[in-house]
Structure formats: C-alpha cells, structure tokens
Amino acid sequence: MPRKQVDPERRAEIGRERRARTRARIIAAAFDIFGEENGLFARIEDVVEKAGVTRATFYNHFSGMVELREALADEVTHHFLEAVTHTISAMPDARERSATAVRFYLHRAREDRRWAWSMLNMSASGMIFGAETYRQAEQTVAEGIADGVFPVPSRAMGRDLLLGTTLAAMGSLVREEMAEDYPETVAGYILHALRVPYDEARAIAMKPLPELRYPPSVEGE
Asked: Which has the closest alpha carbon to 103: 123, 122, 87?
C-alpha cells in the first residue's frame, strides 16, 4: 500500500509541538533542581538527567545554563509579576506600589518554598528575580524619584535597595522562623532606606494587603 502523505504544514506543526514539549520538560526539570536549597550548584548534567534528555538535545534548546536560568526566571515569574503589576497599577503613589510588591513577593516565598528557593538560586548568578522583575522595580523607583517621594541619588541605587533587601529577606523566610509581620516590617524599612520618613514608611507598609488580581488576559488562559 502507498505510504500515506503527511501534509508538510502538519509535519512542521508536529515538530514544533514536540520541540515545545521537550523545552518545557527541560525547564520543569530545572525548576525541580533550582527549587531545592542546594540548587545553586545545578549543572547541565543534573538537568539533562532529570529531564531524561541528552546534552545534545539540551543544546538544541539552550546555549548553556545562563540562558536556561533566564528562561526559567521568565517561566516562574512572568504571570506572578503580571498579577502584582496589575494589582498595584491603580495605586498612584510609588511608595505604596513598592511596599505592596515587596509584600506580595515575601508572602509568596513563605507560602511556596520551592518557588522561593528557585528565586534565590537563580538570582545568585543573574539579575535578581529575573530581567522582567528587575526592569519593573527600576521603573517604579524611577517614578518615585520623578514624583519626589524617593529622594535617592539614582534609580540604580533605589532598585538595588529594593530588590537586594527583598532577596535577602526571602532567604531568611525559607531558612528561619520569622515574625508573622516580617514582610511588612521589611517593606517599611525598604521605604525608609529610600528616604521615606520612618512613620510614613511604616504606615504605608502596614496597610491591608489587597487581593492579588490577575489581568483579564491571564485569567482567561
């Protein structure tokens, strides 16, 4: 019997689907590894073994661990960052936006230790919390500087105070028993480091935390 002809477009689609599944499997394996306390020391060999693929297959998708970390950071943080950004977008004050974002990240770290460890381990050798969150934090600080509520010398300094302190606090949350209001306390001191008067910083950080809301485009996925 003659071999059944497969439509070239369908063949290409099957290939893309297979490639996407393999890429997703590698990223999932990386998350499993980075989600452990010692995940910082993950190697390509560890990832390919966990994913059940060869090194050649790995290199068909990623140039190395740096690119894999970037892809994983996007996978792990993108939708969460969208929700945080959407939730705080209605807040007119950069101080409140910053404090609320810090609290969302720290409360999630307390609730999801694997997510927190993946954030810590990926941030140790790349942009803190991934490039997307890094840029968003810098933008918020820049807006605060422009509005006169963050009188710090530069957006870079403000960004580093915001992200670096949050990352350190996240590490404390997964390693130690911290006070229930630790995320709020940290958020308040970050604002104070950004030169917000102490009483104002504390009052802003202690406001009721709003419900995290995803934008309609994400909710419908």
From this structure: 87
Taking the C-alpha atoms of residue 200 and residue 203, their distance in angstroms, rounded to an integer, is: 5
Query: Taking the model in full, what pTM does it have?
Result: 0.82
8-65, what's its fold? Arc Repressor Mutant, subunit A (1.10.10)
CA dist., res. 103 & res. 139, Å (int):
18
**Strand positions, DSSP E, 48-140:** none
Each residue's pLDDT tens digit, 31-71: 888 878 777 788 899 999 999 999 999 999 999 888 888 88
How much of the chain exceeds pLDDT 70, in percent?
93
Quick one: tokens of 103?
């609290």
- For tokens 């006070």, the residue is 179
68-219 carries CATH number 1.20.910.10: no
Nearest of 146, 152, 137 to residue 193 by alpha carbon: 152
* CA distance linking residue 44 with residue 48, whole number of Å: 6
pLDDT of 221: 47
CB 62 within 8 A of CB 72: no
Residues near 45 by Cβ (< 8 Å), separated by ≥ 6?
55
At 157, which amino acid appears? M
Question: Is residue 135 predicted with pLDDT exceeding 80?
Answer: yes
